[in-house]
Amino acid sequence: MIIDAHSHVHDPVESHLAALDAAGVDRAVLFGTRAHPERAVDLESLRREMGVLDNALAGGVTAVDSYRTAWAELHRTLAAHPDRFVGFGSVPVDLPEDDIATLIDREVVGRGLRGIGELTPPAGAAGRIEPVLAAAHDHGGLPVVVHGYAPTTAADLRALSRLATRYPKVPLVISQLGGTNWMAAIELVRDTPSMYLELSTANIIFAVRLAIREIPERTLFGSDAPYGDPVLARTTVERVTPPGEVRELVLGGNLSRILGVL
């Protein structure tokens, strides 16, 4: 089974389904989102949508109420297409620990979602996800996905690695190959057994090749759609791996093991 480990709710969802079909992807992990670049029709409207994303990544959107629209969009999509999407739920990371645990219990576990993410702590604040990891541990080791591209820094990646060692039963996924810090990300994931590296948005082909070579059982095919494209992301993995076991692990086997299903 081919599983895209990283995608966001599309408007309309039919455009996402068409992209998955074109790539031969069976299922996709789906995150909620407040930004919808796929709605843009010109540069001005794209700037507006990307401004929403930039604000979120900078930590400017933290109130629970600001998440409700994204949660509602996510649940509508999951209900309409349960055979294509695996739902993950995000939560604010600047709340008190008890509030974070309550939200995860209610909005993630209580709604039947399979993991937590994509979390977006601001630069220099990766430590804020520790209460999320603690709650994920308490729920049997739910996988947790953290934004890996800018503004995430190399210091943030190191902080995430240290946190992962405290919660070894929680699969901690660094998305987008760690962005421009991809060499550090590969090393940290390689040396931290509970960490995984998702490969979307890579702009250097040998970064993907080296990541898979170093950690074949802990690298995950992902597109970050709509920012990336499932066809291109799958082609990238297949370009740097021969047919066989390793390719099958990266394209879905590793994620199937994390989720314990599929």
TrEMBL record:
Q: Which domain of life is it from?
A: Bacteria
Key words, A-Z: Hydrolase
The UniProt entry, under InterPro entries, shows: Amidohydro-rel, Metal_Hydrolase
Amidohydrolase-related domain sequence ranges: 3-259
Q: Which GO terms describe its molecular function?
A: hydrolase activity
Decide whether keyword Oxidoreductase is in the record.
no
The entry's protein name is: Metal-dependent hydrolase
Q: Which organism is it from?
A: Nocardia panacis
